[in-house]
Specification:
The chain is of the alpha/beta class. 37% of the residues lie in helices and 21% in strands. The chain has one domain: Phosphoglycerate mutase-like (Rossmann fold), CATH 3.40.50. The chain is built from eight helices and six strands. A six-stranded mixed sheet has the order 3-2-4-1-5-6. The termini are far apart. The model has no long low-confidence stretch (mean pLDDT 93).
Length: 214
C-alpha cells in the first residue's frame, strides 16, 4: 500500500438507545439515542477532538447519524449519510429480544466459516457475505474518492465486528464472545485495495446476559 494514497477512517459505533438497554434487536429499525447515548457520543467527541477530520459520513439510521453529528460538530463538518453503513437487516428478528440471537449463535457454531458467510435466517435477513460486501464497498469507494483524507464514520456495532472478521482480526468464535461498547471505534486505513486495522477501541468480552450490539 502506497503511503501517498492512504485514507484513514475512524468508524464509530453509535451511542446507547432504549432498545439497546431493553435488549431488543434493532437491525435497521430506526431508533434514536437516549440520554446516555447522547452523553457517550459527547465523550467520544472529546476523545477524538484532536483528530483533524476532513469529512464525515454515517449510516442513515438516526442513532448512528446523531452520534456522528455530535462528533462532527467539534470539527465543523456536515455528515453525509448512506445506507451502505447500516446495521444488518435482521429480517423477521427485528424487534425481538436479543436472547433469540444468543440461541441462534449456538446453531451457527456447527457451520464452517464459508457456510456461515452465506447463511440466511429468512429471505429478508442479510447474510454475512451480503452485509460485509456493502460495508467494504463504502470503504473502497470512499478511499479511492478521497485519498489522504481522514474520515469520520458513524455506524453500528455489527459493522465493526464484521469488519474485523472479514480482515482476519477476529474469528467467528472470538466475535461471538465479544462486543463493542457504545461509541467504541476502529481506526482503519485503506488505499481502496488493501485494508489495515490500526487501532481497536472498546472491544470487550461480552457478558452472558449482555445485549448483542445491533
Amino acid at each position: 500500500m502506497h503511503d501517498t494514497n492512504i485514507t484513514t477512517f475512524y468508524l464509530v459505533r453509535h451511542g446507547e438507545t432504549d432498545w439497546n438497554k431493553k435488549k431488543i434487536i434493532q437491525g435497521q429499525t430506526d431508533t434514536s439515542l437516549n440520554q446516555t447515548g447522547e452523553e457517550q457520543a459527547k465523550k467520544a467527541a472529546e476523545k477524538l477532538q484532536d483528530i483533524k477530520f476532513d469529512l464525515a459520513f454515517s449510516s442513515d439510521l438516526l442513532r448512528a447519524k446523531r452520534t456522528a453529528e455530535i462528533i462532527a460538530l467539534e470539527h465543523n463538518l456536515e455528515v453525509k449519510t448512506t445506507k451502505l453503513l447500516r446495521e444488518r437487516n435482521f429480517g423477521t428478528l427485528q424487534g425481538e429480544p436479543t436472547d433469540i440471537l444468543h440461541s441462534h449463535i449456538q446453531l451457527l457454531k456447527a457451520l464452517t466459516h464459508q457456510q456461515r458467510q452465506k447463511y440466511k435466517i429468512d429471505e429478508h435477513f442479510e447474510s454475512d457475505e451480503e452485509f460485509t460486501t456493502r460495508m467494504f464497498t463504502f470503504v473502497r469507494e470512499t478511499a479511492l474518492a478521497y485519498p489522504k483524507k481522514i474520515i469520520l464514520v458513524g455506524t453500528h456495532g455489527g459493522v465493526l465486528r464484521h469488519i474485523l472478521i472479514r480482515l482476519g482480526e477476529l474469528t467467528y468464535e472470538q466475535a461471538d464472545q465479544q462486543t463493542f461498547i457504545n461509541a467504541g471505534y476502529i481506526k482503519l486505513t485503506s488505499d481502496g485495495v488493501d485494508f489495515f486495522v490500526q487501532e481497536i477501541v472498546g472491544l470487550q468480552q461480552r457478558k452472558i446476559d449482555s445485549a448483542i450490539e445491533l
